[in-house]
Amino acid sequence: EPEVTQTPSHQVTQMGQEVILRCVPISNHLYFYWYRQILGQKVEFLVSFYNNEISEKSEIFDDQFSVERPDGSNFTLKIRSTKLEDSAMYFCASRTDANEKLFFGSGTQLSVL
Amino acid sequence: GESVGLHLPTLSVQEGDNSIINCAYSNSASDYFIWYKQESGKGPQFIIDIRSNMDKRQGQRVTVLLNKTVKHLSLQIAATQPGDSAVYFCAERTSGTYKYIFGTGTRLKVLA
What we know:
The complex is a heterodimer.
Chain A: E1 5-7, E2 10-13, E3 19-24, E4 31-37, E5 44-50, E6 53-57, E7 65-68, E8 75-79, E9 88-95, E10 103-104, E11 108-112
Chain B: E1 10-14, E2 19-24, E3 30-38, E4 45-51, E5 56-58, E6 62-67, E7 72-77, E8 86-94, E9 100-102, E10 106-111
Parallel strand pairs in B: 1-10
Antiparallel strand pairs in B: 2-7, 3-4, 3-8, 5-6, 6-7, 8-9, 8-10
C-alpha cells in the first residue's frame, strides 16, 4: 500500500540552526500538508500546499518556516533559525484531488537543544 | 493558547467489549470528518471518514456516528482488541478550506 515517507525519523539541532525536513507524499496525491505535535499535545496544522503554492497556513507558520516542492516527488519543510519551542514531531500528509482522505507519514522528531 | 502537558481523557475497556469514543467538534460549517488512530511514536493512521450528509458509516469493526445538531461525532469499536490500544483523534474539515483541524484526542486502553 502506498504511504507517505519522511526523513529523517529523528533530527537533533542546535538553537539558531536551519533544518530541512523531507517528505515524499503518495505519488498521485496533489495536496500536501505539514502538521506538528508537541509531546502529549494535539496535532496542529501548519500549512497546506497545492498547485505549487501555499493554499493555507496557520499562525504558527511564521516567516521562519517555508515549504518547497523542489521536484515531482519531494515536499520539504524548512525552519530557518530553530527555537527551543520548535521541538516537536513533524508530520507530513497528502491527499488526492478527488478524495478527501488525508494520509500521514510516520513523522520526524525534531529536538532543538 | 494550549496548556503544557495536555491531559488526555482515557477510556479503559475490557478486551472483547465494545468501545465508544466521543468527539465534540467546533465548527457547524464543517462537512467532512475523519477518525485517526495514533500509536506511540507513529503518525496518525486513517480509520474511517464521514461526510456531513450522512449520520452513520460502518467499516470493519468500526462505526462512526455523526450528530450535526449537537456537533458530536463518535467512534464505536466492536470487540475491542489489545491492538486497538492507542490515542484516537477526530479531525474536521470545512468545505472551501484546506486544513483539517484535530481534536484533543482520547487514549484507549484495552485491558486483558
